[in-house]
Amino acid sequence: MTPKKKIQIIPVEKVWLSTQEAAEYIGMGKSYISDLRRRGLLPHCMMGNAAFFLKEDIDNMLENHRIY
Q1: Does the pLDDT of residue 1 top 70, yes or no?
Q2: In degrees to the nearest 10, what's the CA dihedral of 37, 30, 62, 24?
Q3: At a CB cut-off of 8 Å and minimum separation 6, what does 24 contact?
Q4: Among 19, 28, 32, 61, which one is most buried in terms of CB atoms within 10 A?
Q5: End-to-end CA distance of the chain
Q6: What average pLDDT does this structure show over 60-65?
Q7: 3-state SS record for 39-66
């Protein structure tokens, strides 16, 4: 009998975040994220009635509003 292969589970980091996840990611409310989306300040993708945001776009937005 041959030994069974060990299964390795590799965690996958999310790239696209829902409105709720985006809000939690930056510590703000969902309405703030929705406002940024409506004002065109945060790029997004719509799937039906749900908006999704690239984590990289959120990071870039924060970096662009950084005060030195």
Answers
A1: no
A2: -140
A3: none
A4: 19
A5: 65
A6: 93
A7: CCCCCCEEECCEEEEEHHHHHHHHHHCC
Spatial separation of the C-alpha atoms in residues 52 and 4, rounded to whole Å = 40
Average pLDDT, the chain: 92
- Which pair of structure tokens corresponds to residue 60? 């870039």
Q: What is the DSSP letter of 40?
A: T
CA distances from 13 to 2, 17, 20, 49 (A): 34, 11, 16, 24
pTM value? 0.78
Which tokens belong to 8? 């390795």
Token output for 3: 């030994």
Check if the beta carbon of residue 57 is closer than 8 Å to that of residue 36.
Answer: no
**Residue pair 53/33 in contact by the 8 Å Cβ criterion:** yes
Length of the chain, please? 68
